[in-house]
Amino acid sequence: MKYLLQIVLLLILALPVQAEVRLPSMISDKMVLQRDTKLKIWGWADPQEKVTVRFAGKYYYTAASDAGKWVVELPAQPAGGPHILEINEIVIRDILFGDVWLCSGQSNMETPIERLVERFPEVNVSNNHMIRYFKVPTQNTALALQENILNGGKWFSGVASEVMNWTALAFFYAQEAYNHTKIPQGMLVSSLGGSAIESWISQGNLKEFPASVVDFEALDSLKYYDKDQGMPYWTRHDFDDKDWNTTFIPATWREQGIKNRGVVYYRKTIDIPSQKEGRQGKLYLGNLTDSDSVFINGKFIGSTSYQYPPRKYNIPSGVLQSGENTIVVRLRANNGNGEFVADKEYKLQVDDFTVYLTGEWKYKIGIDLNKISQFRSKISNSRSAGSGLFNGMIYPLRDYALKGVIWYQGETNAGNPQPYERLLELLVSDWRELLNNQQLPFLFVQLPNFMQKREQPTDSGWARIRDAQFKISKKVPNTFLATTYDTGEWNDIHPLNKKDIAKRLMLGARSVVYKEKLISSGPVYDSFKIINDKIEISFEENGSKLKVKNNELLKHFAIAGEDKKFVWANAVIKGDRIVVSHPDIKQPKAVRYAWSDNPEDANLINQEGLLASPFRTDDW
């Protein structure tokens, strides 16, 4: 029986081992792939392992690179499904081709659908298998780009048994998009509550913002200095120490000219007569500050972890050799000024033979904690630096083809809104470059109304973020801004009305993405002109008349003179313009509209009932 088991084991070991192909978790059952474009399917395997991809009766052959990655390209496919994709032994089922949207931002992109079911009870009976959702697991790595997302993600459809896994905005937008196009929709949600925009931009595009950039030269230096340079070679008997410094002991590090904290290696060569070769002996090293490890001829003979005990180490038989022998002391003093304490015994003794060890030694620094501290201070921002979410949650998606991006973020940056316009511009160009699509559409959600209303006009970080979003939507081609200052809740930073936001985003998609001819936004500020004691506001030509919501008086216009103090203004529609004034301001300089944390009462619309975006004529 024993021999039979051995034979079976040998047969098993002799069988060829088939390495498994590994896939990113979004390439899996129920996935949606972008229609009408060439597609990359990728993964990992052992170097040079052959990979066969089978789809629609055709075969695509490749092999893993030396780094273990493989990629195949599938031809463009029309919308539809379901399909099956086979990759070696893996079978992926229920694949749809349609439009894929990358949804990113912070907590309002994260709001779970289950929070909204009381307000929108139709969610509970959702029965749409043509919309799919994948949430990218959180991976925040500011120090390195990641090739893959974390495991654990899974595609869910929009049927009632799975819909509670969705986030709210993704669900409502998918429904709107599918209802309009009748094409499958895939929502790839890569977001994190509380995240700042800097976290979503690559290091290369954050150079204008030094506080968000990691000093990678310091990081590389830290990796070098943070390890013991002496291990394992400096303790060897045959190590060449001719370039080491010379010192005399006993002495302190300061007395020896050593100013660092950390670890210093000391080496001394002594002669042992042939008759003492291999004999057991004793090594006396007085007192050392702080801790030490001792080697003779490369063999460890003892250590002491703190400064007070006298150092007396046994030299086992077989360690000493005839002629030259090397003693190495690895001395560590984290607080600096290590020491071979004076007036103590420093000697090696074998029976009646003694070698005194005071005098000349060679030394070299193995760990310099001073330098390590310097380099650590240079990368002290690594936890707060930008790019961590780009590295871990956007970069790994770079080969997944998309229809467009939906971006809902800004709350975290409202405390310092000034850089946001440039940061948002960088994010768009950054992602377009990464995804190899300079025309990739971006749909922005403008921050909704939040916090209490103010009796008088005041400045606002939220207003300035909205302004930055507005300016980028005008400046950067193929972008759209959904105005939402009537969808928020004054006492909840996570308002529930994601459905109306989705509808407005869909209007933008119809215009920017699907190139339909329609009015997709409210009045868009263009320019202003000061005429005597009034300011006349002009809007971009969008084919729609200016109106007032509910036929009330225009609200939330503020005007200021040279003192830059804004007061509520009188505003009236004059044809395709708005005239703004105040009886006490005879020389007006600037107008602001819907400029506050909570401009819910602002009521300028167009004939289609779409809100005008907040704006200002000043640059104060």
Fourth CATH level, the homologous superfamily of the largest domain? SGNH hydrolase
Question: Number of DSSP helices?
Answer: 9
Query: How many individual domains?
Result: 3
Query: Segments where pLDDT lies below 50 for 5+ residues?
Result: 1-18
Helix content: 10-25%
3D shape = elongated
Question: Briefly, what CATH class of the largest domain?
Answer: Alpha Beta
Radius of gyration: 35 Å
User: What fraction strand?
Assistant: 25-35%
Report the structural category. Answer: alpha+beta
- Termini separation comes to 90 Å
InterPro entries: BetaGal_jelly_roll_dom (IPR025300), Galactose-bd-like_sf (IPR008979), SASA (IPR005181), SGNH_hydro_sf (IPR036514), SIAE (IPR039329)
Protein name: Beta galactosidase jelly roll domain-containing protein
Pfam families: BetaGal_ABD2 (PF13364), SASA (PF03629)
Keywords: Glycosidase, Hydrolase
Give a short overview:
Keywords: Glycosidase, Hydrolase. This is Beta galactosidase jelly roll domain-containing protein. The chain is of the alpha+beta class and 620 residues long.
Explained architecture:
- Helices cover 17% and strands 32% of the residues.
- By secondary structure, it is of the alpha+beta class.
- It folds into 3 domains: 1-214 and 384-521, SGNH hydrolase (Rossmann fold), CATH 3.40.50; 225-375, Galactose-binding domain-like (Jelly Rolls), CATH 2.60.120.260; 525-616, no CATH class.
- Strands 1, 3, 4, 6, 7, 8, 9, 10, 23, 24 and 25 form an 11-stranded mixed sheet that branches. Strands 11-22-12-18-15-16 form a 6-stranded antiparallel sheet. Strands 17-13-20-21 form a 4-stranded antiparallel sheet, with no helix packed on it.
- It starts with a helix and ends with a strand.
- Keywords: Glycosidase, Hydrolase.
- Residues 388-492 form the Sialate O-acetylesterase domain.
- Residues 236-334 form the Beta-galactosidase jelly roll domain.
- This is Beta galactosidase jelly roll domain-containing protein.
